[in-house]
Every structure is written in structure tokens, then in C-alpha cells.
Design brief:
259 residues, globular
């Protein structure tokens, strides 16, 4: 079976072979499920514990390994509605940086089935949506026309850091009102939305065979070091991972709905 990586505007899914990690941190919230065996998590220097699935909070030092061969890892923006609903849905120990989670057997089966059948972006998005119980507005309901105009404006110059003041002027709103409305409609702050967008653009270029330097430029990063730092900060892995396993990794990168 070939591993899969999906990059959406505020979420990511890795579905594939497990790999042991050293103790590390990342900004994204991580929900990892052992598809054919339990997970062992070591939070900083604490004794390792075993779970069928685990939610790891943003910036929590941890290492993770699976006793099986296959895992599903969902990465979420910690400032998003997705994360708020995830926390509400999966009860667990609070303040420790992680929560034990237990998915319904049918959901674990769907993730494993997706791995067996191959890359399927629509199906993957449906399964992830079911797992994290996200905001319904961001996943199908009509967006405010002003937010649609903002998204289109951002798409005119992919990777460009456009000031919020300029975006607000484009739709005749105050910066504060636009900031609130964007978060309400999209489920993520503007600055984080733009970062995820830039990372998707750069990752897509890397998967298309461009060098790390060229991929960084495609995403609007100043250089490859900036791209590498931003990618690793969010996901906890170096983007060179995309090159190292590209022959064993199928990748899907989604554009924005307004493109």
C-alpha cells in the first residue's frame, strides 16, 4: 500500500506507514490513530503510555511510535473551529498536552480502507470531517460575499503577504470587522489561512519535482530556510520528507474554493 498525504486549506492528513520520531514539538494539533496496532507516546521525559489514538496539543513535546505498520495522522490549525470541536468531542485528561481518543471502529475501518484503495481526496475529506466534527459553515454553507471577494483577491497573488488593511479596503470593511468576519466564516484567522496557503503552494511545487529553493519561491517564502522552518514549525517534520519518500507517497494539494 502506498502512503498518502492530503493538504487542505486548514487541515492535513497523513495516511500510511508509521515511523518513529524523536521528541519534538509542532504548532499544529495532531490526532493520530493506530490503524493496526496501538500507539506509544512519550511526552517529554515522562514514561511512555499506550493508546489506540491520541490527540496531541499544540507545542507539546512528544515522541510517537506505533506497534503496527499503519497510522492516520490528522493535523489541524490550533486557532480553528475544527480544533475547538475536536476538543469538545473527545473527552480526556486536560492540561497534560494530550488526550486519549478512541474512534468508532467503522471510522478506523474507513481510514484503513482509504489507504487500501488509494488516493481519493473527496473520500478522505469526508472521513476527516466525520472524525473531527468541524464547523458546518466552513464545509458547505454559503460564504459571505465579502469573504469570497477576499479569497479571490488573495488568489490573485499567491504567496504574497497582503496587509489586512488592504484586504479590508477591498471589501469596504474596517480591519477589525474583516478579521472577525473572516474567522467567523472560514474558521481560521487570516494570517494563519495565508500561511497554510503558502505551505500548500510550496509543498505542491516540491512534489512536482522542483528544488526546495524553487518550491519556497512558489509559496512566497523568502528562501528555502524560511519555508523549511515554517513547515517544520507547523507539522514537526522537515519538508525534505516530501522528496525522500516521493516514490512511496501519493500527494493531494487542494486549492481554495474561490480559485
Amino acid at each position: 500500500m502506498k502512503s498518502q498525504l492530503y493538504l487542505w486549506p486548514r487541515r492535513a492528513l497523513y495516511l500510511g506507514r508509521s515511523f518513529d520520531s524523536e521528541v519534538h514539538t509542532h504548532h499544529a494539533v495532531q490526532l493520530t490513530v493506530g490503524l493496526d496496532g496501538p500507539l506509544c507516546i512519550n511526552k517529554s521525559t515522562l514514561q511512555s503510555q499506550r493508546f489506540p489514538a491520541v490527540v496531541i496539543s499544540s507545542e507539546t513535546p512528544h515522541s510517537l511510535r506505533s506497534e503496527g505498520k499503519w497510522v492516520a495522522s490528522i493535523y489541524l490549525e490550533p486557532e480553528s473551529d475544527d480544533y475547538e470541536r475536536l476538543v469538545d468531542y473527545y473527552p480526556g485528561e486536560s492540561g497534560s498536552g494530550y488526550k486519549a481518543a478512541k474512534l468508532a471502529p467503522e471510522l478506523t475501518g474507513q481510514l484503513l480502507g482509504l489507504l487500501k484503495t488509494g488516493l481519493n481526496a473527496n473520500r478522505a475529506h469526508q472521513v476527516v470531517t466525520t472524525v473531527i466534527k468541524p464547523s458546518s459553515v466552513a464545509d458547505g454553507q454559503s460564504l459571505d460575499p465579502r469573504i469570497i471577494r477576499v479569497l479571490k483577491y488573495l488568489n490573485r497573488e499567491p504567496g504574497l503577504n497582503i496587509p489586512v488593511v488592504e484586504l479590508a479596503q477591498h471589501v469596504n470593511l474596517s480591519p477589525d470587522r474583516l478579521t472577525h468576519l473572516f474567522r467567523q466564516e472560514i474558521g481560521i484567522p487570516i494570517r494563519r489561512f495565508v500561511l497554510w496557503k503558502k505551505l500548500r503552494l510550496a509543498a505542491s511545487a516540491a512534489c512536482d519535482g522542483k528544488s526546495l529553493t524553487d518550491a519556497a519561491q512558489c509559496g512566497g517564502f523568502s528562501d528555502s530556510a524560511h519555508f523549511t522552518h515554517s513547515f517544520k514549525k507547523l507539522f514537526g517534520i522537515n519538508p525534505s520528507f516530501l522528496f525522500a519518500v516521493k516514490n512511496q507517497l501519493a500527494v493531494y494539494v487542494e486549492g481554495d474554493a474561490s480559485s
